[in-house]
């Protein structure tokens, strides 16, 4: 991540220079790259704080922080996509000037360098992924893969604009490249909002998780008297499950604990990343004990 951030700092600066040279595609890439860079900086700070135990007091994990940052970046991407679309319309109606040949050539060179940097960054993240890698790193790998494909398409469009001497070809190449970047922003931004907003609002962890818990309860249905409540939610990669069970008053605390342990083991077998809390209630005495 540190390697990516250092390299991307130079690339974002280069993209801004390319945008100032007159290429709308490069301006769009600079906006997308700048927003992505902000998220990368937040990610590395968050990873370092988690690793050093600074966020230990966040008992439900740092997933909410990830989601809040992602929502802000996603909303910014949608606004940037709208700005790009407006400038494409200006190119088509002739109110926005096209880039000069030297500026388009510079943009094409920067585009090729950006493509090479994205190859290095994608490979760096890919090699760092392990079986127990965090949700942050898996998200970074997906983001890097998409950025690599996008930078290839943009590089082709910039090269066409730089080599062409026909203003019509330059206008269409620049505007189509910009629309591609805007489309990427919209798809990525909407996808992030659809994923992060429900979790921020503490929506249930989903039908798959509830089905897994229901199956586990079915396996141990003879161990408890009644299911009083079941709640699930997500925070980043972690799924939190809370189950409230009623047991017969005649059972000892040790017997209840053994049954709770068996139920939790069954749930963890199906949902390894889940944190399961079982609350037990005696039907007769209505005494509640957290297990």
**Global outline:** elongated
Low-confidence stretches: 285-291
Query: What's the main sheet like?
Result: 4 strands, mixed
CA-based gyration radius = 26 Å
| Residue share in β-strands | 5-15%
Tell me the series of helices and strands, N- to C-terminal: HHHHHHHEEHEE
Number of helical regions: 8
Average predicted confidence as pLDDT: 79
Q: What's the domain count?
A: 2
Termini separation comes to 39 Å
Order of adjacent strands in the largest pleated sheet: 1-2-3-4
Q: What's the total count of β strands?
A: 4
| Approximate helicity band | 55-70%
What is the SS-derived class? alpha+beta
Task: Label this structure with key terms.
291 residues; alpha+beta; Alpha-Beta Plaits; 2 domains; 8 helices; disordered C terminus
Topology, pairings included?
Layout: H1 2-20, H2 24-51, H3 63-92, H4 101-128, H5 135-163, H6 167-200, H7 207-219, E1 226-235, E2 238-247, H8 253-270, E3 274-282, E4 288-290
Parallel strand pairs: 2-3
Antiparallel strand pairs: 1-2, 3-4
Helix pairs in contact: 1-2, 1-4, 2-3, 2-5, 2-6, 3-6, 4-5, 5-6, 7-8
What does this structure look like?
- With 291 residues, this protein is an alpha+beta fold.
- The chain has two domains: 2-200; 207-290, Cation efflux protein, cytoplasmic domain (Alpha-Beta Plaits, 2-Layer Sandwich).
- Helix content is 68%, strand content 11%.
- The protein has eight helices and four strands.
- The chain has a four-stranded mixed β-sheet with strand order 1-2-3-4, covered by helices on one side.
- β2 (238-247), α8 and β3 form a beta-alpha-beta unit.
- The longest helix has 34 residues, at 167-200.
- The chain is elongated.
- It starts with a helix and ends with a strand.
- The model is unreliable at 285-291 (pLDDT under 50).
């Amino acid at each position: 991540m540190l390697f990516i951030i250092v390299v991307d700092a130079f690339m974002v600066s280069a993209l801004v220079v390319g945008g100032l040279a007159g290429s709308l595609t490069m301006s769009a890439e600079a906006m997308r790259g700048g927003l992505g860079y902000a998220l990368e900086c937040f990610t590395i700070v968050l990873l370092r704080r988690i690793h050093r135990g600074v966020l230990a007091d966040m008992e439900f994990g740092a997933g909410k922080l990830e989601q809040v940052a992602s929502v802000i970046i996603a909303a910014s991407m949608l606004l940037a996509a709208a700005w790009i679309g407006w400038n494409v319309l200006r190119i088509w109606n002739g109110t926005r000037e096209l880039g000069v040949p030297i500026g388009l050539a510079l943009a094409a060179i920067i585009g090729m360098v950006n493509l090479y940097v994205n190859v290095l960054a994608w490979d760096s993240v890919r090699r760092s992924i392990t079986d127990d890698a965090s949700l942050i790193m898996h998200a970074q790998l997906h983001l890097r893969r998409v950025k690599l494909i996008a930078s290839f398409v943009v590089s082709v469009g910039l090269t066409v604009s730089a080599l062409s001497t026909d203003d019509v070809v330059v206008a269409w190449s620049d505007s189509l490249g910009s629309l591609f970047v805007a489309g990427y922003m919209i798809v990525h931004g909407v996808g992030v909002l659809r994923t992060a907003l429900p979790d921020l609002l503490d929506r249930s962890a989903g039908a798959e998780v509830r089905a897994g818990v229901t199956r586990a309860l079915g396996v141990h249905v003879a161990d408890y008297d009644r299911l009083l409540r079941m709640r699930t939610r997500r925070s980043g990669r972690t799924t939190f499950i809370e189950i409230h069970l009623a047991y017969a008053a005649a059972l000892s605390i040790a017997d209840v604990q053994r049954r709770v342990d068996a139920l939790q083991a069954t749930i963890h077998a199906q949902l390894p990343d889940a944190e399961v809390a079982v609350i037990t209630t005696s039907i007769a005495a209505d005494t509640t004990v957290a297990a």
